[in-house]
Amino acid sequence: MKKGVKRMSFVITSACIHEQAGICVDVCPVDCIVFGDDQFLIDPNRCIDCGACETVCPVEAIYFEEEVPAKESASILKAKEYFGVA
């Protein structure tokens, strides 16, 4: 996995663990959404910040990193660890 990105673009939070509809994968123009251990995750090295995934998420689980609710901050760490982002 690539390293070098210092921030996440969009982050998929824990609501996805129970939903996993995958609509976000279908609309992503750069195929940056992958299935991790238990939910979808967005690769910050590939994401172009288009927001297509955020608008179609049926459980509103996708946020810009800066807008992730405090109670979901573990989702940021989870994605950073998965993609090796410092």
Automatic annotation (TrEMBL):
Pfam families: Fer4, Fer4_4. Gene3D superfamilies: 3.30.70.20. Residues 38-67 form the 4Fe-4S ferredoxin-type domain. Ferredoxins are iron-sulfur proteins that transfer electrons in a wide variety of metabolic reactions. Its cofactor is [4Fe-4S] cluster; [3Fe-4S] cluster. One of its GO terms (molecular function) is metal ion binding. This is Ferredoxin. It comes from Sporosarcina luteola. Keywords: 4Fe-4S, Electron transport, Iron, Iron-sulfur, Metal-binding, Transport.
